[in-house]
Amino acid sequence: MGTGLSTSVMAAVILLLIATLSAIFFKRLRIPYTIGLVFVGIVLAFICNRVDGLEAAQNIKLNHDLIMYVLLPALIFSASVNIDTKLLFKNLSPTLLLAAPGLVISTILVGVIMFFFTPLELGGAMLFGALISATDPVAVISLFEIIGAPRRLRILVDGESLFNDATAIVMYTIIKSIVVAGAAFSVGTFVQGGIDFIIIFLGGLAVGAVIGFIMVQIILFAENDFMVEVALSTVVAYAAFIVADKVFNTSGVMAALGAGMVINHYGMTRFTPKIKEYMRQFWDFVAFVANSFIFLLLGFTEDFYLIDTNAMSITLRHIMWGIIAIQISRALIVFGICPLLGRRNKEEKIDIKYQLIMFWGGLRGAVPLALVFSLPPDLPHRVLIIEITLGVVAFTLFFQGTTVKVLMRMFNLDKPTVFMRFSELHAMLMARRQGLKRIQDIASTGKFPHEIVSAVEEEYKMKISDQKQRLSEALKYRQQEEDAVKRTVWSRVIFAERKSFNYLFQCGFINERLYRRIDFHAAQLLESIITTSKLPTTITHDPLVMRLESIAFRILRCFPIPYHIINRFRTKALLDDYLTLCSTMIGANQALEEIDKLEETEFFKVYKEILSECRTFYKGLSDRVFKTLASLESKNFDLLRAVTTATLRDMIYSTEIGVLQDLADSGEITEHICDHLTEMIRLQIVFNRKQVYSKALEDA
Predict the structure, then answer these.
(1) CATH architecture assigned to 2-410
(2) How far apart are CA 261 and CA 84, in angstroms?
(3) Which phi and psi (to 5°) does residue 369 adopt?
(4) What angle do CA 481, 483, 485 make, to 5 degrees?
(5) 606 DSSP assignment
(6) How far is CA 687 from CA 343, 580, 682, in A?
(7) Taking the model in full, what pTM does it have?
(8) What Å distances lie between residue 693 and 583, 646, 683, CA to CA?
(9) Residue-wise pLDDT tens digits, 333-370
(10) Domain boundaries in the chain?
(11) Helix axes 563-600, 608-635, angle to 10 degrees
């Protein structure tokens, strides 16, 4: 027992070492390390199977339980907890259409093709269609990171895979149950399968969301202990998967996805920056380890099933039909569904270049492998399905995965936009100017030899001159220059505005709900400037949670609810509106201060028209908010003044907490004393806030 365990641990350590060294090597070659790991695995398996003394390595292969219950939950949770949720929700329509209806269409089409052109029976062909339709973006995403692909293209590929993993598993499970039961494929079975699909899919999402929400509340008791919070997040990932799969018979993948998305959502405001960084780094490491084992062991498995198989020519012919089937189905769903999007005013069209990358970048990986190894032992042509699956996965990784880079370069998707190039060059110019100022400060102290300081100063002046030249070359046309500068100015101003919102939230002036609302609106403004270089005529919508709350409140108003309860709701809404307006005006004033700073800089002061447009926008916003506040205060003077007084006290209390933390960091007081005094102040904040709101609601 002990010997077997030690051997397994040693094998895992050796494989991780090989994966790590391979990652370093392939990174230098600018090749996605996951693709390289498959090749390394095949080579290792070939050596181990033919060298005396290494026979034990023949047992190192992928299997269903290893992928499904150990590696896949980690991959799904890692992707969902680190994904850009704002960008994902903005592209939710194409993501869900490709991942759900698209995958169902792919399953049926691949199944039909394999049924007619291979020895597979209809049940086996449909099982193959379900398991092979899930895309794995790991290799492509790592390539995107290497060459700097557009953010939207990455979220489309990553988001689709995140959801279609669950869709594929649910589809496979339903078809497998039909095949095992010996039922015929009919209209009735398809209708029942559709109902089961919805229940399993949405049920898993709901289970994961509930577990994630409960765990968020528990995590808050950890009081910023990063080890405890990271450990609890690990429990969430696997608990959500197992509870959904084993207890509720729903989708474990959707549960892990739902739990990760909930923690991602609440973590933005409830985790400190330090905790968020620890969480990101930990789950990036977990994803690296999981992917390393999957793709390295895939090489071992490929060697066992394909290289040593008999009747190679016959197997290759069936694999070819599998490749043709997935290409036809992928082309149909990408080029058939994507053009349907963007027909509504609020939807952004998907460029044909993006569609081509999404088509060719539809690689296959972990999920098909997990599902194919769970095929029933007595299923006709089971080994053939495994061989075809491994062959298709190998083709997509080795051929499509290595040629998608050529396609991206052909469409110039590997090159940064003018705005991104300008931002990079201007940031370097600012850094070098600050470096020159530092050199001049050092020179004034007289502590270094004058000739050395002068030489370094001249060197830096040359660097600054060179940077200016590169900046002017990057902006060859006046229109490009103005567009890039406009986006940079607005980005910096909106960043200053959002920074003030974050401060108001951290010090307790606004609650989490209001902070999300005003920050969401600022993010929409920034997104419009970055993508279209135009100001939006209106803010399109509130965050999803607030829209659901608004719908629920409108529904409640249809019922005979006592007046005093309705009035309490109205009073709370009034308080929320007042604090939102106050925060908006503070943010606008902060933005105006940032514009003043930009006007004083050597580079931006010449772009008076752009700065004037930005100033006019925020001056108008500040004036409108001030008038609205004056109107509200005149009608509800006592109530709103009391709330303002309470929130200002909270801000002062938060300042006290900051001073105590600084004293603890400098060693003037102990951490214990700091924690004790901080807790006393926080209790006072809570008491102060409850007292004011209780009085306000009683008066209502």
Answers:
(1) Up-down Bundle (1.20)
(2) 10
(3) -70, -45
(4) 65
(5) G
(6) 52, 22, 9
(7) 0.77
(8) 18, 9, 16
(9) 999 988 887 555 556 788 888 899 999 988 888 788 88
(10) 2-410, 418-476, 480-635, 652-699
(11) 150
pLDDT digits (tens, 9 = 90+) for 35-90: 888 888 888 877 777 776 665 565 667 777 888 888 888 888 988 888 887 778 77
Provide the residue type at 594 as one letter. Answer: E
Residue 473 host element (H or E): helix 450-474
Query: Tokens 């006019």 — which residue?
Result: 616
In whole angstroms, give the CA distance from residue 624 to residue 284.
45
**Residue recorded with tokens 């569609």:** 355
Task: Give the total residue count for the chain.
Answer: 700
DSSP-derived secondary structure for 42-63: HHHHHHHTTSTT-GGGGG----
φ, ψ of residue 62 to 5 degrees: the values are -75, 150
Rg of the chain's alpha carbons, rounded to an integer?
29
Phi-psi region of 56 (alpha: psi -120 to 50; beta: other; left: phi over 0): alpha
Interior/surface letters 479-504, b for 16+ CB within 10 angstroms, e for the rest: ebbebbbbbbbbebbbebbbebbebb
| Exposed e or buried b per residue across 561-577, where buried means at least 16 C-beta atoms within 10 angstroms of its C-beta | eeeeeeeeeebeebbbe
How far apart are alpha carbons 237 and 439 in whole angstroms?
51
3-class DSSP assignment, residue 209:
helix
Phi, psi for residue 308 in degrees, rounded to 5: -95, 5
